[in-house]
Amino acid sequence: xxxxxxxxxxxxxxxxxxxxxxxxxxxxxxxxxxxxxxxxxxxxxxxxxxxxxxxxxxxxxxxxxxxxxxxxxxxxxxxxxxxxxxxxxxxxxxxxxxxxxxxxxxxxxxxxxxxxxxxxxxxxxxxxxxxxxxxxxxxxxxxxxxxxxxxxxxxxxxxxxxxxxxxxxxxxxxxxxxxxxxxxxxxxxxxxxxxxxxxxxxxxxxxxxxxxxxxxxxxxxxxxxxxxxxxxxxxxxxxxxxxxxxxxxxxxxxxxxxxxxxxxxxxxxxxxxxxxxxxxxxxxxxxxxxxxxxxxxxxxxxxxxxxxxxxxxxxxxxxxxxxxxxxxxxxxxxxxxxxxxxxxxxxxxxxxxxxxxxxxxxxxxxxxxxxxxxxxxxxxxxxxxxxxxxxxxxxxxxxxxxxxxxxxxxxxxxxxxxxxxxxxxxxxxxxxxxxxxxxxxxxxxxxxxxxxxxxxxxxxxxxxxxxxxxxxxxxxxxxxxxxxxxxxxxxxxx
Length: 494
Description:
This protein is mostly helical and 494 residues long. It has 20 helices and no strands.
């Protein structure tokens, strides 16, 4: 079978990327609105302990999830040539893997209950294990759509899946299903959306094993090994805080911490996920032209500088009013951890985009080699933080150590690519400084100078933040503003 066309020609890659970016960000806007409304409803329908039970299980269910599809989807996107035969081989491997992961999670269910001393975790893990084969039925089809830059079709299906999962959670919570309302709907949504992906992608879920003569499975094995290694390291770094809080404190404390962590990254992760979905196939198409790739990276970075970084600062400044007003007074213990974690959210917004570059050029080993030397420090910092300051101490450890590790990783990747790291560091540092100044100004004006009811206080503080931030960017980061404008309206440089 003839290989599939790799994608758009260089001359129209920018236009395709711009249109795709508009579609993806529109999708994320819809999903963010839906999930925010659902989170407000769930925060009022469920108690912190019920969120905590789901979070206890999530720390263990994340372990099988970290294997994901062994990087098969990413391999499909960045492969220079791909056809239906390769797709079916990768789909078959992924489906078998999903059954293995489901069995692994079932085995972990009883270990988790013994670890936490809470038998409710067993049932949650057994039910959620069904999500592995459910997700495998359509996840590679979604990557196929992204490879072809069919972002509109992928976006519509993603919104439908989100509505099914989130809407089901709220409906079950309203009917009194307690923590089960956070477990069953996402599992059922996987099986419900799969047939739609099969039809839209025009790829039937037919298995095919083995490799054709002349194909090189070694490339796939190497790519998958490092990709899975990155997932393993990421699991330890991203879940050790949950595991330690659940072990050293209690379910309620974990509920407050989980609330703070997820809300600090709610909008930031949406933007990063969208940017990553767009960046990987676009960067892969330009991977052989390093200068073009670098220009594309900085255009994407300008979006992070103008959206995620100031958003984290704004949320941190207004959190003492925003959280109790929107979610209720009982979530006040989450305010300080939330503010601290917003620091890491801002730094993460600057450093995450470089991961797409390393994967696009077929070098997941870069991230693996760097992060592998940092995991032990992260885990130790989490343990010290939990013992010394509870959930606030863990939040400080996350913000300090993970932010430092993210910056170090980015600088190492820049060095490996031969790019100018000073430009990246200066752009990010100035943007963080401006956001910090704007957050301080908003907090000072809102909580120190004037005494207003909650809603006017939010409006007043938000206005003060935007004024200081925009003035600072206009004075010190004009190139970033111009880059973001070009990304929005398009140019001819690619």
